[in-house]
């Protein structure tokens, strides 16, 4: 049994390092995947806020943790070689790097600070309004419209 547990732990470590390596090799794909997860979590919390799905504090905190993680990772996912291609990032990301990084940090902080605070759908609404403002502020300057 110890051999199996050790093998599983080793495999998980290899997978974790592999994910980091992939992120370093393809930051554009990584940031797209993170934004998709952001959007999926936002959709869930909006449904929760509207009473379309039951309130679940654990799911709210999972979404907030993912958003905080995205905010922390995002600044490193915009190297110069990702300025072109299949991206909605505007040139402002690279021209106003300090502002972009500050907005990502604010998004991460506000997401993290909101964890554990949702006790009902009204709390989710307040969180969505606050975090949504962070998203909007960044998208306004740093993301091309669809």
Describe the 3D structure.
The chain has 146 residues and is mainly α. It has a single domain (27-142), classed as Cytochrome c/b562 (Four Helix Bundle (Hemerythrin (Met), subunit A)). Helices cover 74% and strands 0% of the residues. The protein is built from 6 helices and no strands. It has helices at 2-25, 27-49, 57-73, 92-95, 97-114, 121-142. The longest helix is centred in the first third of the chain and has 24 residues, at 2-25. The radius of gyration is 17 Å and the shape is elongated.
Summarize the structure.
The chain has helices at about 1-25, 25-50, 55-75, 90-95, 95-115, 120-140. The protein has about 150 residues and is mainly α. The longest helix is centred in the first third of the chain and has 24 residues, at about 1-25.
């Amino acid at each position: 049994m110890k051999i199996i547990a050790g093998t599983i732990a080793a495999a998980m470590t290899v997978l974790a390092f592999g994910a980091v390596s992939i992120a370093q090799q393809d930051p554009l794909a990584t940031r797209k995947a993170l934004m998709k997860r952001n959007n999926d979590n936002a959709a869930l919390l909006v449904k929760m806020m509207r009473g379309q799905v039951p309130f679940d504090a654990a799911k709210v905190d999972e979404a907030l943790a993912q958003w905080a993680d995205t905010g922390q990772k995002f600044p490193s996912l915009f190297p110069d070689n990702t300025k072109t291609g299949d991206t909605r990032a505007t040139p402002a990301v690279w021209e106003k790097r300090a502002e972009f990084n500050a907005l990502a940090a604010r998004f991460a902080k506000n997401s993290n600070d909101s964890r554990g605070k949702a006790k009902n759908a009204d709390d989710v609404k307040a969180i969505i309004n606050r975090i949504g403002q962070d998203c909007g502020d960044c998208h306004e300057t740093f993301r091309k419209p669809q």
